[in-house]
Specification:
Chains A, B: Pfam families: RecR_C, RecR_HhH, RecR_ZnF, Toprim_4. The structure is a homodimer of 199-residue chains. Chain A folds into 2 domains: 49 residues, RecR Domain 1 (Helicase, Ruva Protein, domain 3), CATH 1.10.8.420; 114 residues, Dna Topoisomerase Vi A Subunit, Chain: A, domain 2 (3-Layer(aba) Sandwich). Chain A is α/β, with parallel strands linked by helices and 199 residues long.
């Protein structure tokens, strides 16, 4: 539809997740209107991120050297590992400021339809980290959906034989949510996990 | 939140129109998972588009040389010019295959709030193209909103003194639309512009 370079840009942008043909066109024209320095900064950020970012050899989180910032931080508690699906989840948990332990990023969830079994995830690396007796608790913080629950169940069974406390994040009503609009599974979990007032 | 290069990429992506913080993060992680060659292609498309795309010196459409593909096409009719706001509109009109004349891209609409008056648009260039008597009709194809109508009214007045037919695109119900859900202005226009059945 457009001449060479514009159409190339629209095509490339259209391959990004969540960017449809209309957005791709809108972004492309924004680029054409932008300052060349801004465009160069974006192009550099893309190639730099790809070139420089790797994954922490301990926990699998995104990192800029062999180990990520959290793994090298001496102030973190070594006895608790929070197992999450993706690096994004590390950021989500960090934002709560509730957790001071270490992380382990699986790199996904068990999903037979997509051909992802336990061997495709960083489960072996997790087991290696649990070899010495430093870790006393593993918190399974997968997403509360079918794949997340299945992965948590698999890990719970695997860790069951070890002298480690295995916990899961609480399920229940989201804060600020509305009981009336909660789905029945969430409301059911909120009942199941109800806590004593004043305790 | 993230380490250097990842956060830089998220920040840069977040500056694009229609890309919020969540999308920026999603795209950034997609980039980290992508093939380096794909990322390089996107980065190149960005800088190439910025470096190579300019605007046609005749009509103002996006182009890769001094003139755009439409202006250099000898098969187009020289006697009709369709005036549009943006290059995107050229593509939209081309898609209809209804129009075989030339274009003129204004580069926006008159919008005093944003400080855009007639001098900020390519109106002088349009008047220059109308100097010789080649052009017999000017079709004003601005968006049917307040700014578009105001710009069209301004141009219609400017062209009124010339021996040129000035037309506007028909307003009415969108094809496939629903009379019941049409806003009253559109429905009013559809009545005003009603056509004889069988004519």
């Amino acid at each position: 539809m457009y001449e060479g370079a514009v159409q190339d840009l629209i095509d490339e942008l259209g391959r990004l997740p969540g960017v449809g043909p209309k957005s791709a066109q809108r972004i492309a024209f924004h680029i054409l209107d932008s300052d060349p320095a801004d465009v160069q900064r974006l192009a550099t950020a893309l190639t730099e991120a790809k070139a420089r970012v790797r994954f922490c050899e301990v926990c699998g989180n995104v990192a800029q050297s062999e180990k990520c910032q959290i793994c090298v931080d001496p102030r973190r508690i070594d006895s608790v590992i929070c197992v999450v699906e993706e690096s994004k989840d590390v950021v989500a948990v960090e934002r709560t400021r509730e957790f001071r332990g270490r992380y382990h990023v699986l790199g996904g969830v068990i999903n037979p339809i997509d051909g992802i079994g336990p061997n495709e995830l960083r489960i072996r690396e997790l087991m290696t980290r649990l070899q010495d007796d430093t870790v006393k608790e593993v918190i399974l913080a997968m997403d509360p959906n079918v794949e997340g629950e299945a992965t948590a169940a698999y890990l719970a069974r695997l860790l069951g034989s070890m002298e480690i406390r295995v916990t899961r994040l609480a399920s229940g009503l989201p804060v600020g949510g509305d009981l009336e609009f909660a789905d029945e599974v969430t409301l059911g979990r909120a009942f199941e996990g109800r806590t004593l007032v004043g305790s």
